[in-house]
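Researcher: Checking consistency across runs. Here is Beta-glucosidase again:
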Amino acid sequence: MTAVRPETTAQSAPGASATPASSSGSFPTGFVWGAATAAYQVEGAAAEDGRTPSIWDTFSHTPGKVRNGDTGDIAADHYHRYRDDVALMKDLGLTAYRFSVSWSRVQPTGRGPAVERGLDFYRRLTDELLEAGITPVATLYHWDLPQELEDAGGWPQRDTADRFADYAELVARALGDRVGVWTTLNEPWCSAFLGYGSGVHAPGRTDPAATLRAAHHLNLAHGKAIGVLRAALPSSAQTSLTLNLHQVRPLTGSAEDAEAARRIDAVGNRIFTGPVLDGAYPEDLLADTAHLVDWGQLVREGDLAEISRPIDLLGVNYYAPTVVSHPADGAGATKNDGHGASDHSPWTGSEHVAFHLANDDLTAMNWAIDASGLHTLLTGLAASHPRQPLMVTENGAAFDDYVSPEGVVNDPQRIAYLHAHLDAVRRAVADGADVRGYFLWSLLDNFEWSYGYSKRFGAVYVDYATQRRIPKASAHWYADVIRANALPPGR
């Protein structure tokens, strides 16, 4: 199939400025409607065509790390079924598909030349998307570090940032004629703080100092990759970073709870937005964590200039707000922070903070449903960084979905969730936020990290025994929204 250059396709510029909405219920003309997945969660084919283990292969095969001993060895078998999955996307009317590239499929040891068989899968996938009129949006890293790089020290080692830049160049040179929108990292907070702090994500380490070193080197990897992408890609290509920004709220109006919120905002948000968007780490973050790392030694000359290279889009992932307080007994943080059970806090340097649910309207993940947090997050970013275009790159919910005797999957809770959150996006746009599009998480039910296959986020139900796909009621609802470029009346 002949490659189509991204600038020649009808939906080739999901980062382009959209025309304002013409009515209260509609979205801007040109608004991007997408869905997202991640390589380890959907691809399967874990040992095919030269792919070697990533940290998530190792982690999931370690007894006790993942619920029910589940692994991503087969997952949703997207590697073999991508043509059928793209056909589903076309049926839903998606204008963009956000996927991630498996680093160890492309560059098995994290060093050296690319494996062309690995790249060929992404060539086939992107060609199929373009043929269907769907814009491919590639994420270079969604948590699957090659195991050999972790064995060499992983993200706490500065060299990993250089290895990532080399990998980014390999992928950009292979797919730059097909992909017009590139994301460097997905949720580096999770990679650093859940992977090296609480240990509930791969590689499962619990070292507070390593957590902070990992965060800086992920920032540096992002900056280095942006430089490489700019050099390797056509001038029309767009670059981005996706962050799971925490919409932090103090439980009460007390000074103590305000201080708790400040600390979590620093270590949860501004450790990334500070250097990336403002060119500096916040002074309060440095003070909070000075007992763990020597920032003056960690951050070398030129790092911040590298990290703060301009990006075309900032991806925002949102699921639930983060409500915090100062613990009444002055003890450590509660375990109900929404990021999995562990004896080790992911909130490195700010462990003495208590977490609370915003309300008792919960998803199957026990996350509070509160769409106002997404509106606040988007309008807050628009106020603090008015020239930075935004994209909602993940939003969705897990519920206890099942196939009815009639062979359908009705999920009214998800429809209500999506309606409320899309309305929050629409209102944020009306309030002046430059939000260019929305990606539903997720296209397919998939391997939900340490929860294994026990949680279903997909718009499309996957029967893992047969790999049969069944679009849920929410998928049909989302297709109607895309077709109308507007929300239906009511909820």
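Researcher: Does this match what you'd expect to see?
Model: One thing to look at in this run: The two ends are 43 Å apart (CA to CA).
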